[in-house]
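Researcher: We're teaching a course module on how sequence relates to structure. For the next exercise, students receive a sequence and then see the predicted structure as tokens, so they can try to spot secondary structure elements on their own. Here is the exercise chain.
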Amino acid sequence: MMRKATIAIAAGGIILVAVTVVSFYFETTPPSGMGTLNGTVEIGPIFPVCRENVTSTTPPSPWASNQVVVLPQSGSPVYIPISWILSDGCAMSGIFQVTLASGTYKVDLSSCMSTSARAFGCATLPKTAVILSNSTTSIEISVDTGIR
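Model: And here is the predicted structure for the students to work with:
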């Protein structure tokens, strides 16, 4: 994107100076030894009856409070907020991103961490993510709630 600005200066016979400002979009690179984990999350159905062509930006509670939980091999878990939307009046879709130190992590959802939740659509979690320095690892999480 290029923006031009004209600045008038009234001093010593100089009347006009043109200044051009150029701005660029730069993709930031994580610090050395760090990498990026990003991904998508789908949970559905969240209602027993789905209505087509209904889209909202606000998923209902308690679904909207779900977070991605990143579990390092040692240390405390990291909770990552998810940017959620309700799609087709039936399912939630979201995205997340976090910068992590290089290493191997388990990736889970906060609502899937109980033993009973594993039996209801969370059986494929946790997933393993390997984070490499200066690169991006993408992961897809899909939960079928079994609500019909």
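Model: If you want an answer key for the exercise: The two ends are 48 Å apart (CA to CA). The chain has one domain: 34-144.
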